[in-house]
Write a structure and sequence with these properties.
The chain has a four-stranded antiparallel β-sheet with strand order 2-3-1-4, sandwiched between helices. It is built from seven helices and four strands. The structure holds inosine-5'-diphosphate and magnesium ion.
Length: 136
């Protein structure tokens, strides 16, 4: 049964800085994701704080928000059957050391904080995150 979904993907500052955007986008395309929308932006710390609101009680929250606002990022709306889960699989585990062979985080991630990509974790969050970046 078809279950077309849209999910938000972010190529984080560590990957943009190393010029990995095109290679990572290629990985999405090879895996049959349609890139419906795409833009390169630099967000402020307060915007990052809003984006990562769900993590505000975590000890790494401040560093995380500093980091996401530290340089340009590429944000994309990806579409595919079961896009949310499929993107999480393609990204791999949060910590690149624990990520499976062939995943984006395994290939490109530097550390748990500089793990190259973000992907929405649920249908509700995908909607919220897509609106965050692409609602005019
Ligand atoms: P996810 O990106 O795989 O969904 P989350 O648990 O939602 O992982 O965490 C959001 C982001 O916060 C991660 O991608 C990572 O960059 C960072 N992060 C998560 N756990 C830690 C940690 O223990 N130390 C530092 N940064 C972390
Ligand atoms: Mg998450």
């Amino acid at each position: 049964m078809s279950n077309i979904q849209q999910t938000l993907s972010i190529i984080k500052p560590d990957a943009v800085e190393r010029n990995l955007s095109e290679e990572i986008k290629k990985a999405f395309k090879i895996n049959n994701f349609n890139i419906l929308k795409e833009k390169k932006v630099k967000i402020s710390k307060s915007e990052a704080e809003k984006f990562y609101q769900v993590h505000q009680s975590k000890p790494f929250y401040n560093d995380l928000c500093e980091y996401l606002s530290s340089g340009p990022i590429v944000v994309m709306v990806l579409e595919k059957n079961d896009a949310i889960l499929e993107n999480r699989k393609l990204m791999g585990a949060t910590d690149p050391i624990k990520a499976e062979e062939g995943t984006i985080r395994k290939k490109y991630g530097i550390s748990i904080d500089k793990n190259s990509v973000h992907g929405s974790d649920s249908l509700d969050n995908a909607k919220i995150e897509i609106d965050f970046f692409f609602k005019d």
